[in-house]
Amino acid sequence: MNLLEVALGIITGIGGFLEVGSIATSADGGASFRFQLIWALAVATICLIFLTEMSGRLAAVSKHTLADAVREEFGFNFTIVPRAMELIVNFMVLTAELGGVCMALKLATGWPIRVFAIPVMLIAWLMIWAGTLKIIENGTSMLGLVALCFAVAAWKHHPPLHDVLHGLVPTMPHHDAPRYWFFAISIVGATIAPYMFHFYSSGAIEDKWDEKSLGTNRFSAIAGMAFGGGLSVAIIVVAGMVFFPQNIQVSQYEQVPLMLFPTLGRWALPLFAATLGVCCFGAAIELALGTAYMLAQTFGWNWDENEKPHREARFAAAYSIILLLSGLLLLTGLDPLKLTMYSMALTAVILPLVVIPFLMLMNNEEYLREHTNGPIGNAVVIITIVLSSIIAIVTIPLQLAGGGG
Amino acid sequence: MRPAIVACLLFAALACSKGSDTEKIVKEARSWTATLDLASRGFAQHDLPAEYVRQVADVAEKAVSKDIEKAEDSEARDACTQALESARRLREAAGQR
Nearest-CA distance from A73 to chain B in Å? Predict the structure, then answer.
């Protein structure tokens, strides 16, 4: 099994899974409902494992990325609507990720977010411009291991195992039903992010996967996503142990490091800032690249992260422009936590537009030959996505009306 | 048709369960008071640096100051005043170290 191929799964697990959205939704969800939302994370993680494995399998067997195959099979006119929606959501999420890096720096230095917006954007841009996919994959997956501090904190709390396991069973909330369902779909949106499929399938093509890579693909999808999902559960558990008994609701990022100090002492703040900074930075790079891959494949431009940027000028322009716009939006001083929560919920709304054509492709023998989907994968993904989207459409207006988030 | 009916029913059920503004303000103010108490504890134990606890006090004060303007009854105002007092105490303590 190729270790570099496995790294692609792990970076997607760390950079794509544990990022500003999953840290915020898990911390706030645990603080408000203790372990009661673990089921939402578990369902979303299982769905994500299926979808990540599918995007790698599509690339390895058909030599097509997701956006490429959807355009070829359904035509450009069909493709443009879901891709436009994805572009808007990706822009919001990218801004939230860059905001997460700036927040980490604010926590460490006390300087305002706006000071860091443009330098952080430029460093992310430089990493993509000058780096290769391998450097990005390996660098982020190594640095992202700092996120294990949440697992250590959860373990040191000795949480009641029975209660944690009970959280795997969906239950109705005793209070704040709109907030509960908003968190549930935000967790789904933070977990199942469409840009990850573009990044993963494009990375698989760049790494020249073929049918021999299917075992690695399955392993890295399961290991990477289970690793990310496990860390998100750890955040829910720690928030449930520290914030929930004291009725602390997370309404600003500045509150979140407090959940680590009862177990990690003076390491709490540096470790939280490092985790937030590294994970958000990794996710921002994935997002910018994933968006550029999506645009290039939708419009039929040349794309290759390992090529010199001047040879793939439109691809390079795509990630440069979206990064620049996100950096500029951060300068307006919007609330990064609210932006994160609404971006995640909106992601859940658009999921069917992205996933249903994807599933149709995964059942098409012209692309997948004997490697088409089984009934279990189809059922898990379709039920999760459609239900999440319906709940998102219902709860977002209620949260907006109530000024929550 | 069926998903639309389910969505409407869910919307109605969720809308009915929304709490009042006073309840929300009290809850948020108490949440900030508890946050500030936790930060004070970490600061007293030398686990959290002064610069960070000052940030916590600042965001708490900003959030509660907005809420106190909307507070219509004494319970909500008292909860906000208590949170603001905790923020002031924490900022003073941070300033002394």
Answer: 28
pTM of the model: 0.88
Separation CA B21–CA B46 (nearest Å): 37
How far off is chain B from A110, nearest CA to CA, in Å?
A: 6
Whether residue A188 lies within 8 A of chain B, CB to CB, comes out as: no
d(CA B73, CA B69): 11
Category of B66 on φ-ψ map: left (φ > 0), alpha (ψ -120 to 50) or beta = alpha
Digit-by-digit pLDDT tens for chain B (97 residues) are 455 555 555 555 555 444 568 888 999 999 999 999 999 999 999 999 999 999 999 999 999 999 888 887 888 899 999 999 999 999 999 988 7
Q: Which 8-state DSSP code applies to residue A374? A: P
- DSSP symbols for A13-71: IIIIISSHHHHHHHHHHHHHHTTTTHHHHHHHHHHHHHHHHHHHHHHHHHS--HHHHHH
Mean pLDDT, range A369-383, rounded to an integer: 90
Are A394 and B14 inside 8 Å of each other by CB? yes
Per CB-CB distance under 8 Å, the chain A contacts of B26 are none
Measured between CB atoms, does A75 come within 8 Å of chain B? Answer: no
B37: which chain A residues are within 8 Å (Cβ-Cβ)? 246
User: How confident is the model at residue A345, as a pLDDT?
Assistant: 80
Cβ distance of B7 and A254 shorter than 8 Å: no
* pLDDT, tens digit (0-9, with 9 covering 90-100), for A84-128: 999 999 999 999 999 999 999 999 999 999 999 999 999 999 999
Q: pLDDT value at position B85? A: 96
Contact A261 B19 (CB under 8 A): no
Cα A182 to Cα A345: distance, rounded to the nearest angstrom = 7
- Report whether A147 contacts A280 (CB < 8 A): no
Please name which of A77, A60, A79 lies closest in space to residue A367, comparing C-alpha atoms: A60
Q: What is the pLDDT of residue B18?
A: 45
**CB within 8 Å: A398 and B18:** yes
| Residue of A279, A241, A246, A230 lying closest to A263 (CA atoms) | A241
- Chain centroid to Cα A168, Å, comes to 21
CA A53 to chain centre: 15
A289-308 per-position pLDDT tens digit: 989 999 999 998 888 777 78
| pLDDT over 90 at A39, yes or no | yes
Over the Cα atoms of chain B, what is R_g?
Answer: 18
Q: CA A254 to CA A258: how far, in whole Å?
A: 8
Measured between alpha carbons, how far is A205 from A199 in angstroms, rounded to an integer? 10
